Amino acid sequence: MTFRTVETEGPLRLVVVGAGGMGRAWTRAIQADPATELVGIADLFSAAAESAAAETGIPGLAVGADAVELARRTGADAILDATIPEAHHSVTTAALLAGIPVLGEKPVAASVAEGLSLAAAAEHTGELFMVSQSRRYHRSLFQVKRQVAALGAVGVVAVELFKAPHFGGFRDEMASPLLLDMAIHQFDMARFLLDADPVSVSCEEYNPPWSWYAGDAAATAVFAMEGGARFTFNGSWCSRGFETSWNGSWRISAERGTVLWDGDGEPDSFPQTAVADTEVDPGHEIAGSLREFTAALRFGTEPMGRVHANVMSLAMVEAAIQSAAQGRRVAIDDVLERSYEAALATERNAEVLGVLKSWPSVRDALNR
Q: What top-level branch of life does the organism fall under (predicted)?
């Protein structure tokens, strides 16, 4: 599927929407990349936007409450959405309908239904909407993928994530903090490693008695993936001592051997495999996302995080939570179908609704 490229002179001009912690991380990434230029910061709270602007050290950096208005005022080429998930749909829809491409923080939206609406809006407008799954952008993860490819068919992908963060604030009160706020990273990484989408999931959530979270801060999920492989996720956000990497600790078992990765350093394989390091450096985390977004807009190359390709990672989260709540295995297609029905029922833009209605099936549409 094609999208409009940006052919302006000089660096790609960006407005960041959301002046919280992630928004400020993105402003630093933009300033550090010579191919991009920060031209404005939008936030509903003017004091937050002004504070974030002051931190950049850019004299007279434009601020405002309306992202589209600010983008037009500054001549921005694109918008970077670093707002809370509940605002992703409204911010991104407004930008796409105004003819402005968007790079958005994960998740794609607050629900799969909203993600499907955004995929349809991107189709309708011909603008690029890319979701930043920043943990894909790790040189060692790319090495893992190459080593796995040399070992034949994959049977098991297993990751363990054990941390003990004291965030404070909204995460402490969430119903499913680990699955909602963190597991999408590992779910998405598994899709990347396998080049496969999920078929079904069985999941159990629980909360150890010493947990400082109100909701379930631990979970175990087993996904059946296309091609027959199983992906297992086992994690906790209240496990002190011997903590894993934030990327998790990985084991991939294939027909001719196994690859281990601690989530930070170099991967190891048995048997030892000589794999040529011919891949282009993907960049690191959000800097890698930004680099790929810029290249996509300049050259029309397909980015990993295009909205259609990303929705399935959020579908894995919703399916896992539903499985835990219902005490049964949940088919991903059932989640997609219910989300599609919700998207049809709630879509307010007639043209976007027309695109949604034209899809032969959700999976077919997402694989375009």
A: Bacteria
